[in-house]
Write a structure and sequence with these properties.
By secondary structure, the protein is mainly β.
Length: about 190
């Protein structure tokens, strides 16, 4: 996979009010105009991507955002804001995520601020690879151990149709297929909601 092009963006702390409550614990709203996602609730929880609590949130048709020792920050914060949602089940809020292209806009509204991210790359994550999962959950997506210098987002959903078409019918305890499609973006602006 080719490295993402450099994208000029705001400083790491851009748009994050000093008096803000802990953004990792606040429900946000996600909009992805290019694929028709509007006002998708993003529910934060302490955990890791696609664990039991996260799957329960996704099963309600909402997006889940894990945070804690294994990664995850709030919207607009320096590091990797992780967002996962179903592609096929529970209404399939991210059914068209694979069509999201480099340069497309992702909007996250939280705490009276709209954070605008620009998609820079696509990654594939394997649930059967500890390294692949570490890359997805890293503070800098794809770079475990790297210190973040800007706010980024990883939006992730299942690759069930692709895995099934390839004859890969492996599933984990939560019925997730082996692979996930991850869209990575960087924060480019923040404005009042």
């Amino acid at each position: 996979m080719a490295a993402a092009p450099a994208v000029a963006g705001p400083p790491a702390s851009f748009g994050v009010p000093a008096d803000r409550t802990d953004p990792r614990t606040e429900v946000a709203r996600l909009a992805i105009p290019a694929i028709g996602v509007t006002n998708l609730s993003v529910v934060p929880y302490r955990g890791t991507t696609d664990d039991t609590p996260g799957t329960r949130i996704q099963d309600r048709g909402e997006a889940a955002s894990p945070y804690g020792e294994d990664g995850g920050v709030g919207p607009g914060e320096t590091g990797n804001y992780l967002v996962t949602a179903h592609r096929l089940a529970a209404g399939g809020p991210l059914r068209d995520l694979p069509a999201l292209a480099r340069g497309d806009t992702v909007l996250v509204t939280e705490g009276g601020t709209v954070y605008e991210y620009r998609i820079t790359e696509t990654r594939k994550t394997s649930f059967r690879s500890a390294r692949s999962l570490a890359e997805q959950r890293a503070e800098v997506p794809g770079e475990p151990g790297e210190k973040p210098s800007r706010a980024m987002i990883t939006i992730s959903t299942c690759a069930t149709p692709e895995d099934d078409a390839a004859g890969n019918h492996w599933r984990d305890a939560h019925h997730n297929p082996e692979h996930r499609i991850d869209k990575i973006g960087v924060l480019v602006s923040a404005r009042p909601a």
